Amino acid sequence: MTARASRYVAGAAAGLALTASLTGCKADSGQDAKPSGSATPEGRVHLTAAQEALSKSATETGDLKSFRATMTTSTVVSGKTTDLKGDLAFQLQPKPAMKFDVPAIKTGDSSAAGFNEVLVDNTIYLKIPALAKTAGKPWVSFSLDQLGKATGVDVKAMEDQGHQADPALNAKMLTASKDVHKVGKETVDGVSTTHYKGTIALSEGLSKLNAEQKTQAQKIFSQTGLDKLKFDTWIDGKQLPRKLTLATPADAKLKFKTAMNYKGFNEPVSITAPPQSEVADGMQLKGLPSASPS
Questions:
Q1: Chain CA centroid to CA 233, Å
Q2: Which residue has the higher pLDDT, 70 or 204?
Q3: I want to staple 177 with a disulfide (CB 3.0 to 4.6 A). Which of 86, 126, 198, 228 is the partner?
Q4: 201-231 pLDDT tens trace
């Protein structure tokens, strides 16, 4: 695989990691965020202590306005491992906006330039060396509406509904786990937390979404061949997630592992679009999958 191809694969893997671990689709406030516990003879649902902890975390993260995180992802493609590590800033309210900076991408023994990504006002801006050479400008922009038409995925609906990477959405998905259990007390980035481990069947996790959101998410997951994920989550004393790791099973076609270290809950973030003079319209560029006729 060439360095350029590896760069695009790594970017796609990062997007998948965010979508898989943090849903990419907002669950309705009316959806049941309680774990799938076992039923008693009287018909009541019995929840384990670990399931109760996930439920509380889903509730406590529901009103977050912003957060920061460090994301580390490792993806195996054609026998080669591609690693990236980036810093994420996300504004959830009053309007969703995101900034994701990855300094470098390592594939095997070689290292390539990373990328920068900004999401503001229904437009995603990418700063990738390979794209810059084609575009003649540092940044390339894609309207989510146009990108959705070109790829067949309703990314605009996902952005509207979902605030990609919202910890609350991730917590709601994890409540579908039936085998989550407590590992013990551990310190994450200087914060005391409780470590929980389990697996999640994607079909059950997606049941936390409404019909439209579920359809969009399935379009993404169907391309990966994934049906379940292993997870570890570390929850602090305020019921906020401080760390999350997700990994594919050993027999999965696509193999990846991602870790999110959360911080800066509700702290102000500044996310703005690049200067227009430095931006090219990505939908006008030839030779890009997203610019190909649908």
A1: 15
A2: 70
A3: 198
A4: 877 766 765 565 566 556 656 656 677 889 9
Residues 247, 102, 170, 228: what is their CA dihedral angle, to the nearest 10 degrees?
-20
Please tell me the distance from the alpha carbon of residue 183 to that of residue 195, in angstroms, as a whole number.
Answer: 5
CA distance 27 to 39: 24
Residue type, 219: K
Residue 100 contacts residue 86 (beta carbons within 8 Å): yes
Do you know the residue count of the chain? Answer: 294
CATH of 3-282, one of 3.40.50.1820, 3.40.50.300, 2.50.20.20, 2.30.40.10: 2.50.20.20
Supply the pLDDT for residue 80: 83
Task: Identify the helix (H) or strand (E) that includes residue 13.
Answer: helix 3-22
Contact of 98 with 117, CB cutoff 8 Å: yes
